[in-house]
Structure formats: C-alpha cells, structure tokens
Amino acid sequence: MRCINVPELARISTLLREKRDSSTAAFNRVVLKRAAVLLVIIGCLGLSGCTLRVSYTFLDWWIGWQIRDHVSLSRDQRKTMEQALDRFHLWHQSTQLPRYLAASERLQEQLQAPSLPPQSWQDIALEGQLLYEDSLKQLMPDLVTLFIELNDEQWLEFKQSIGKKHEKYAKRYIDVTPEERLKKRREHTLEVLKPWIGKPSEQQQQLIDDWNQALKPIAEMSLQQRQTMLARADSIYQQRTELARNDLSQQLWQLITNDRSLYSESHLELIRDNQQLTFELSSQLHASLSDKQRKRLLEELQSYQQDFAYLHERYLKNTQVHPAI
Fold first, then answer.
1. Residue 18 and residue 288: Cα distance in Å, rounded?
2. Element (H or E) spanning 302, and its range?
3. Which of 212, 230, 281, 300 has the highest local Cβ count within 10 Å?
4. 44 backbone dihedrals φ, ψ, rounded to 5°
C-alpha cells in the first residue's frame, strides 16, 4: 500500500490556495485533484474554508471531467459514468464527511501537543491513505465496467495521454541539474508551509535545507516504474474480456493504488528512506513552531472542521427535502 507523504499532499494544498480567484473549470480541476481529495486534511493539509464548501459541490463533476481529460467517451459511456458519479457523491456526503470531521478533530488534538514523533506523522499519512482507498473501493465496480467497455481507439488515446504525462515528469524532475532540483524543492516547500504557519524561522529553514539535502534521488526509478505500470495496464486491457471480473478488478486495483508488491525492493527501500526523512522533518517542524505559528495552524484546522460539518448537514437537509436522494 502506498503511504501518502506530507509534501505530496502539500503540493495540492498550495495549488488550492492559489485558485481562489480562478475560473470555475480551472478552479475545480485543482481543488479535486483526487477522487477523495478531502483526505488531504488528514495530512494536516487541505483547502481554504470557502474553497472547500464551493469545490466539494463539484466532486462528482470533476472526477468525470478528469476521466474525459484522458479519453474521449461515447454518449452512452458519459451517461453511465455520470450516473455512477452521482451515486458516488451521495455516498461520499453520507458516509465520508463524518469520518473526515472525526479525523480532523483527532488531528487537532494531536497538534496541540508540544511535539509529535515521526511515527505519529506516519500514522496520520496512513489514515489519509485508507480514506482515499475507501473512496476508490466505492468507485471500482464502475471503473472496471468503463475499462471493459473502452475500445482500442480509446485505449490508444489513454496511453498517449499518460505518455505525455511521463514526458512532463521527466522534464520537471529528471532533465534538470541536482542544484536546480534542490532549489525548486526548497522553494516549493517554503511555499507550502507559508499558508499554514507563515514565514518559517531561520531554524525551520535550516531543517528544511538539511532534509532537502538528505533526500535520495529516485526520479529515474519512479519514471521507469510508471512506464512499467503502463505496460502492465496495456497487458490487462488486452485480456480484459477474458479475465474473470474479480481478477480484473484486483489487477486494476493494484495499479491504481500503486501496490508495493509491484515495486522492486531497491526502489521500495529508497521510498521508505525518503518517507522516514519526511516524517522526521514533520516532527521537527512541529516541535519548532512558535506560539503564533501553532495558533495559526490550529485555527486553519478548525475552519475545515466547520466545513465538513456544514457540508454533511447540508446533505442531511437535502435528503429531508428530497427523500429519494
């Protein structure tokens, strides 16, 4: 199982903050970066108060839009997908928002402590991953159906779209000098932290620099893994009508969740090492917070709790007005 780390989620958070005044389409594309994008709160990251209330409304729309960004669907496929996403959104409002509220309340209680060990940060990230996977499980039957119904032309379009993403990844993370990579990662990390704790102190910036230097480069291995995954997906596609549905679903699940069983041990070791460094940085930064920074962080988290409660309450009111929902 892939454990989501803090900087990865933080990148989403930063983009969300920058989209307050963007167009609706671009705004929602960033806001709902993943099917269960609200899980970012579990990593002590997330959305601005008003942004969350607006963007969550478009959750099912955005997932569908993201799928169509990779492959052109037929009219019947679009209709089937829209119905599936309507069901998913209702399920998410009914069952997941209360879980996010409870998780964010637990997180707030943890963050009030003067320090949190690295293991606690790993547990926080794992809880976010589990919430994400629960949402994905709800979507899987419909994703499997869509996968089976894709024709060869659509599949080729999908592979070409993913291939372009691989090219962008290489340009951003591989075709740069080590110095450029360090500089970009430092700037990005400082940018991520700013909305949450303000400007990091000199001590905190030094912690970030030490972490940045200690991270082991894995971009080349990650790109190779992505290409291997795409080749594996292609093989599954070619067998999709021959495989039992349960087997097909299980194989797709492994790909979508980046199942660790598909990775080499050498790659996994690098990932674990970098994640441990990141959890240690999170622990160190939390322990170094000033009273002002901690107050700001907790106030932000409280605003998210209010939004989770508001969105779930709105769902309950709508079901009373429209019992068929």
1. 26
2. helix 291-321
3. 281
4. 60, 30
The domain locations on the chain are 8-321
* pLDDT at position 325: 57
Per-residue pLDDT for 29 more than 90? no
Question: For residues 151 and 148, what is the distance between their CA atoms, to the nearest angstrom?
Answer: 8
- 98 vs 37, 133, 307, CA distance in Å? 15, 16, 11
What's the one-letter identity of residue 262?
L
Torsion of CA 297, 301, 302, 303, to 10 degrees: 110
Two structure tokens written together for 281: 């940085």
pLDDT tens per residue across span 135-182: 889 989 999 999 999 999 999 999 999 899 899 989 988 999 999 999
Nearest alpha carbon to residue 53 among 93, 107, 102: 93
Residue 301 has pLDDT above 90, yes or no: no
Calculate the CA dihedral of residues 96, 97, 103, 105 and round it to 10 degrees: -160
Q: For residues 113 and 149, what is the distance between their CA atoms, to the nearest angstrom?
A: 51
Residue 228 neighbours by CB under 8 Å, 6+ apart = 262
3-state secondary structure of 32: coil
- Residue tagged 């309340």 (tokens): 105
Please tell me the distance from the alpha carbon of residue 94 to that of residue 278, in angstroms, as a whole number. 34
Task: Using alpha carbons, list the distances in angstroms from residue 124 to 4, 129, 149, 247.
Answer: 9, 9, 37, 31
**Which residue pairs, CB below 8 angstroms and at least 24 apart, start in 74-81?**
77/146, 77/149, 80/142, 80/145, 80/146, 81/142, 81/146
